[in-house]
Structure formats: structure tokens, C-alpha cells
Automatic annotation (TrEMBL), chains A, B:
Cofactor(s) it depends on: FAD
InterPro entries associated with the record: FAD-bd_oxidored_4_C, FAD-bd_PCMH, FAD-bd_PCMH-like_sf, FAD-bd_PCMH_sub2, FAD-linked_Oxase-like_C, Oxid_FAD_bind_N, Vanillyl_alc_oxidase_C-sub2
Family per similarity comment: Belongs to the FAD-binding oxidoreductase/transferase type 4 family.
This protein's record includes keyword Oxidoreductase: yes
A Pfam family annotated for this UniProt entry: FAD-oxidase_C
EC number: 1.1.2.4
Protein name per its UniProtKB record: D-lactate dehydrogenase (cytochrome)
Keyword terms of this UniProt record: FAD, Flavoprotein, Oxidoreductase, Transit peptide
Domain FAD-binding PCMH-type: 49-226
């Protein structure tokens, strides 16, 4: 299906044996070479072939991570950082073998600085765990990829989600990081100051580096006050184009919408079935506004006018918190409700992102392409950012269907790039999108990325086979 | 006064002669080795000793920049990118000689994408030029360092200014860049998509790299709609501490204040004298709110309450646009009004940034230190970000005063670092703050930065003697 990236290992069986012996004696039951555990640490959520690591270790501190990396580096054995394994592009696969460094036991919330609106966490803390912890203090962390991912994984893949249109992505919400580099050295990328112009931006270099430059051992995140008022609503449109045009007008008007999500008719149908909703099965915007009572009312009114101007509506409110939760739970369950459209089928979730002005066209062409290809594939998107997801549900045992799906995904990326967009808005490169990086960035920029990789990881032991094609 | 960084040149007189001959024959009157022009291209706004380049060239296109860099690279001659020369830490000095690449003729606004809220500009476009151009379209670019700096220079130094508390800094507002690297290759760092997780963040790596990794040849910036309503006001406080505490409460409350600036009593006195105001000479917050008519009124009311709670007030409005302009012009003239406190004195502008919770303490201790040292030094700050400026006005011919000032600045940085802050919030490192990077980042992170520099500029020709101490 996809180039597996399997290649000659850079270490001998003796090297590996020695590393495993040392890890076993040092970490006891926190290290395992059991097949079941190794299989769980391969990429299991994706359509990419799983490639299990040779062993899995569960460090409990930064010092232990550094120890593991130094040991592996001494023997050229790859290290693959593992958060929750919910990445969609094969980030945790081990095409060259090596040791999976599972950070799930490093899940302490180290310090909340309410006055500074920041929090220091270990990488294994998940986003839901963090928000549960923060709620009593009136604070929240807005980044919400579909899964209950770990903060370390979210930083490593530059994750975002439904709130990004207002609060930005991980690149905007990570204040600083600590990480273990390939040489076993521990770095802190920045202070807790809200801004700095003191040297190269190592924070942003590590955010999105997918474990290829270092293993993230601590993250300082920006927090936000829970808004005084939150209101949510939905608005139907006759076509995706009209919905997208309403989105553009909304963003341009300066309305500080907190969430603005498009579900196409098929996605609405899937959500109705999976989440027990009874929405009209037409393209639909889900919205949320954050602010003061008066502020959210004003924003809602203005959005209602914009929707009407673009042939949409009626815009209806979910005034009760439980109604709002039901809507957004349905939205967050998009992946599972999509998958349920074809029981037994395999979801192939992919995303692209284009400039907002090209969004309507890109979504419409993609919808037409899906239909002409004969795929079952709902579309759902963070359309305020020009980012949308397509989720073909395929029979992986039908090679013709698999080929058709692959060809479709390639056309989708080509289309997004031709419109001045990117091959992935938030899923990352992993293994699945390596082949598009040259087309997106060009030879010279890709060579600069490789030079950085080579400079910081000359032995190539940090999550090999990701981001870069060989 | 400061380590000048002057060192053995890495090229011979013959190399330089050859480069100059080629540039002269290729660029005609757009290349000069005239002393006056070279002197203008040394750091003239700072207290750092000016170090003129060997020649100045005025390219008119990216291709010409690439040609210049390749020629210089072939002969190991340094290239120093030059925007408007308004940097405050000696960024444009040429301690090892070389060619100043003045981008002022690359000042075209390439494309405005109103629907996407972005604009593509050449690096020599200045922020005022850009905003004049955008005004008719209802759009603006918020980043406003004091000077009318070039966008290329602002990107290279990770500039910010008074609006950063709401709109972020250059790191948040540069969507993508084009740059010529040390090998003469041209890279584009990203597409125009609002977000991407496709590979390393070269955009943020170049933002703040101060010309040491490449010369920026084009910048795509995020824009914002001019708010429907803007309101401004001022609020006196008895002490800096009370003012800072009011700032913390404002930020924590989630009030999306657009600007919140502290002027200490001496700065207010300077502004009164220089800008013809008659404000009470006590610590003062200047504020601005952006939003709808109802929104800014609500924000103002809420801020008024917070100020009262912290012993400040009365909060008074500048309701007329001309009043508002007068206030903010006075704020933007802080550098010049500060300088006018001591005619004939030299301004030594420096900045630090600390977590908000430490701001009051840091400002108060700094004020006490200034007074005990016997310096004349107003304080003004972007306090919503924890960032403040101190501007000692000194007699540079009095070695005792110079030493006292240096020692004071060193204590200020040490104090900020001890509070979890940074040695510079927005001025950059240049030559002046190189000596603090190890204390701020630690050996390992600084080594990672050096490794990146070495990987992308192995000959060390890109703006040598900046960021890194030798």
C-alpha cells in the first residue's frame, strides 16, 4: 500500500541484545520485549502496516529518558518516542526496529502558574487529564485533536483541532520544552517569559519534529481563562461552497469565533446515526463563541446575519450546556461515526489545509473526486483555518479499492498544493506523507531540514523513517 | 565598553578586492565603498561602537541577493543583511568586515490576499508603508516596534511592540518566508496555508535568526481587520506594583486588551515634556481596546473596575481619535522623549521580559537599582507580556558612568533570568546580549543552536559576530 520504509538495520543483533539486556536489568518490569506489548506500540490506528519496535521501555523521569537515549546511541539503536499512539501517519512505527520510549508514566502536572496563565507538564499528561485538573481553577488548555492524545505527542506532531481558529495550534501554545537530544544531552528551549528574542527558536523547531530531533520530556503550555460565557449553534447550508463562503466572511469580519467546523452531508448522516442526533442531512456549520454574556450574544447575532447573506440558516442555538456538549461530542466522534458508515471497513483519515480563499473550491472538487472514484468518505473540517479532513472507509482486502483510495489521496494533496496549501494541516508527516514534502517545500528547503536533522542527530537514531524519504 | 567582536578576517585583501570589483561591475552605482555610506550602515542607533562594512550593495530582487551571497561565499566574505538600521543591539555592525546587503530597494508589496487576511511583501517594506497601503482595504498589520522598521528586519529580529499582548509577535504573524541561504540557495519556508504540520518549522527558525542563517527576501504576513471600534484610555497608579497587579488581573480575567503599556513616573515626565502632554507624573497605564462598539465599552468598564480594585484610577478615556493618536504618538516617541531628558546624553535602550507574576517585583527592583546607581533611566513596558524597557541616558565620555551603566544592565538581566525570564523580550541578541545566552539557555541548548548555525552556514559568512560569542 505504502512504502514501508523497512530497511537494513544500522545495528547488529549483538548490539540490540546488549541494549535489551541493559534495559532489562536497569528497568526491570518497566522494559519488555513481549510481542503483544511491542505490537501495541506499532502504528495501529492507521492503514499503514504496523512495524513493531524491538522493545518497549517506560521511563519515569527525564534522567531515565536521557539514560535510555545514551545507551541506544552508543549502539546505534533507534529510539521512538511514544505518547498514546493515536497519530494518524505512522509516527510510532519502527521501520528500522529499535526501542519504543513510552512516556505514559511521565504524567505528572508539575506546576500550574495561574497568574502567568501557564502550566508545566510531563509529556505523558493527556489533554483531558490536564483540563480535568485545571477546571477548578477556571483555566483551560484549548488544543483538542480528536483523540485524548498526550501533550508530548501533540507537541511533537504540531497538533491542533477545533479551537485553533481562535487559540492557535501547538506551535502557538507551547511556551517552552525540555527534551533529550540524540547525544543524550538535556536542553530547555526557552524560559517561561511570554516572549523572547534571545536566539534561535528551538521551541518551534522541536514542535512538529515528530521525535526526529529529540524526545520531549517536559512542556510548558499557555493556558486560557475559561470564558465567562460559551454559546454554540449549528447552521445548515445548501452547498459546501455557501458554507465555506460564510466562513470566509465570518473570519474577515473579525468575529473572534472560537470554533467553526464544517460537516458535509455524509458526515452529518454519520453523526446522526452514531451520536443519536436528528440533524437535516445537508452541509452544516457547527460554531462556538467564547466571551462575555453580551459578547457571545452579539457574535451570534452577527454570524446569523452573515449566514443569511450566504443563503444559509436558520442558525439555531444550543442554549443548554448538555445540548452543547452533545453537539461537540458528536463532532469529536467524527472519526468513529465515519468509521461506522461501513462496519468492517478501515478508516483512512487524511487532511490538507489551503488558504481560506481556496477552501470552497478545494472541498467541492474533493467531494466530486470522492463521488467519481466511488469511495465512501465523509468530509469534516476546521474550516476557519482552511483545514479539512477526508475519511475514506475502505475494504483493505480489495486491492482495487485500496489503489483507488491511494490515487484519490494523492490527487487531494496535489490539489491542495496547487492551491497554495499544505499536504497536512495537523496530522503530520510520519511515514504517510513523506513523499509529498519535496513537492511542498522544494529541494532547497528540504535540504535545509535534512542538514538540521544531520547536525542534531548525526547517527540518525531518533525516530528514523519519519518526515524524510530515503 | 563592550566586547567589539573585532577579529581576524577570514578573507584576504585580494578576496575582498575581487568581490568589490565584481559587485561594482555588476551593480554599478548600486554598490559603493564610500566611507560615508559604509558608516551609515554600521550600528549608529546604539551605544555599541560602530563597525562599518567594507561595502554596501542595494539589490533589487531575490535573484540579485542570491548572486551577491554566492559571490561572497566563494571568497569567504561576510554578508550582513540591512533593513533600516534601527536595531538596538548592533545587528548591522560588521565586526569582521564584509558586504552590507541593504534591502531598502526591495520594497514592493507583492500581493494582498484580503480573503485570506495575508499579504506578501519584499523585505524592505516598512511597517508604516504597509499600513498606509492596507488602510483602504480595512486591514492592518499590528506589529509596531518603536521605529518604522523594515518587515525583513522585524522578522529577522523577532520584533514585537505594543500590540503583541493581543496579536502576538513576528513569530506569530509571519506565515512564511523566502530567504537566500549561505550556499546561495533560495528557500520558501512554508505555504500560505494558515497552519501546517509538514516538516520542520523553518519559518520560525529564520524568524529571530538575525541574518545569521540566511537573508530574508520575501515575507508573507498575517493581517487583521481594522476593528470596528477602538477606544483608548489612561489610568494612574500610586506605584508600579499596583499598576502591574492591575495588569495581571486584567490578563487573567480574559479581557482581550489590545495594548496595555506601563510608563513609570520618569517616563511620564519625559512624555509630558517631549510630546506636550500634561499628565500627572505618576506610574501610568496606557490602554487600548479593539472590538465592536458595545465590546470596547464593556471592556473599558471592566478594566475600570479592575483598576479601582487595585487602588488605581480614575481611568479616563481618550474618546476622540486625535486625542488617542496624541497619546499613542507620545508612547511611540518614548525613545526620543527619554533621550531628551538629558540633552547630549546617549540612550542605552535595553529590555528584558519575565513571567507576568514576577513583573511588579522585577520593575520595582530595577527602579530601586537605577536610583541607587544614580542613573537617569525611564522605564516603559509592554507589561501585558511581562516585557519592559529601561533607557539609561548616559554621558559616554565619563568612563565611570559607562561602567556603572554596564554593571546596572548586567544586574537587570541577571535579575530577569533569576525570575524565569529572558535577557531580551524583543530587541534581540545582536552583539550586545551575546554574553547572556549561555546563562539563559544553558550549554546544551546553545550547542544545539551552534550546530544548526554550522549546518546551514559552515563558512560562517552570514552576519558573523552576532548571537554567538566566540
Amino acid at each position: 500500500m505504502v512504502d514501508s520504509g523497512e530497511k537494513a538495520r544500522r545495528y547488529t543483533a549483538d548490539d540490540l541484545g546488549l541494549v535489551c539486556d541493559r534495559l532489562a536489568s536497569r528497568f526491570g518490569s518497566r522494559f519488555s520485549i513481549g510481542q503483544a506489548l511491542r505490537d501495541q506500540h506499532a502504528s495501529v490506528l492507521t492503514w499503514l502496516p504496523p512495524q513493531a519496535p524491538d522493545g518497549v521501555v517506560f521511563p519515569e523521569s527525564e534522567a531515565e529518558v536521557a539514560e535510555i537515549v545514551r545507551l541506544c546511541a552508543d549502539h546505534n539503536v533507534p529510539v521512538i518516542a511514544y505518547g498514546t499512539g493515536t497519530g494518524l501517519e505512522g509516527h510510532v512505527n519502527a521501520p528500522e526496529g529499535g526501542i519504543s520510549v513510552d512516556t505514559s508514566r511521565m504524567n505528572a502536572i508539575v506546576a500550574v502558574h495561574a497568574e502567568d496563565l501557564d502550566v508545566v507538564v510531563q509529556p505523558g499528561v493527556t489533554r483531558k487529564q490536564l483540563n480535568d485538573y485545571l477546571r477548578d481553577q477556571g483555566l483551560f488548555f484549548p488544543i483538542d485533536p480528536g483523540a485524548d492524545a498526550s501533550i508530548g505527542g501533540m507537541a511533537a506532531t504540531r497538533a491542533s483541532g477545533t479551537n485553533a481558529v481562535r487559540y492557535g495550534t501547538m506551535k502557538d501554545n507551547v511556551l517552552s520544552l525540555r527534551a533529550v537530544l540524540a547525544n543524550g544531552e538535556i536542553i530547555a528551549t526557552a524560559s517561561r517569559a511570554k516572549k523572547s528574542s534571545a536566539g534561535y527558536d528551538l521551541t518551534r523547531l522541536l514542535v512538529g519534529s515528530e521525535g526526529t530531533l529529540g524526545i520531549i520530556t517536559e512542556v510548558t503550555l499557555r493556558l486560557h481563562g475559561i470564558p465567562e460565557a460559551i454559546s454554540a449553534g449549528i447552521c445548515p447550508f445548501a452547498t459546501e461552497k455557501e458554507a465555506c463562503d460564510a466562513v470566509i466572511a465570518t473570519i474577515q469580519s473579525g468575529l473572534a469565533v472560537a470554533r467553526i467546523e464544517l460537516l458535509d452531508a455524509l458526515m452529518v448522516k454519520a453523526a446522526n446515526a452514531y451520536s443519536g442526533l436528528d440533524l437535516p442531512e445537508v452541509p452544516m456549520l457547527f460554531l462556538e463563541f467564547h466571551g462575555s454574556e453580551a459578547g457571545v450574544a452579539e457574535q451570534a447575532e452577527r454570524f446569523g446575519e452573515i449566514a443569511t447573506d450566504h443563503g444559509g440558516g436558520p442558525f439555531s442555538w444550543a442554549t443548554k450546556p448538555e445540548e452543547r456538549t452533545k453537539l461537540w461530542t458528536a463532532r469529536h466522534n467524527a472519526y468513529w461515526s465515519g468509521a461506522a458508515l461501513r462496519p468492517g471497513g478501515r478508516s483512512v483519515a487524511s487532511d490538507v489545509c489551503v488558504p481560506l480563499s481556496r477552501l470552497a473550491e478545494c472541498v467541492a472538487e474533493t467531494r466530486r473526486d470522492i463521488d467519481e472514484t466511488g469511495l465512501i468518505a465523509p468530509i469534516v473540517g476546521h474550516v476557519g483555518d482552511g483545514n479539512f479532513h477526508v475519511q475514506p472507509i475502505i475494504d483493505v482486502d480489495d486491492p482495487r479499492e485500496v489503489r483507488a483510495c491511494e490515487a484519490f489521496l494523492e490527487r487531494m494533496v496535489t490539489r491542495a498544493l496547487a492551491m497554495g496549501g499544505t499536504c497536512t494541516g495537523e496530522h503530520g508527516v510520519g511515514q504517510g506523507k513523506r513523499k509529498y514534502l519535496k513537492a511542498e517545500h522544494g529541494e532547497a528547503a528540504l535540504a535545509a531540514m535534512r542538514a538540521i536533522k544531520q547536525a542534531l542527530d548525526p547517527k540518525g537514531i531518533m525516530n528514523p523513517g519519519k518526515i524524510f524519504s530515503d
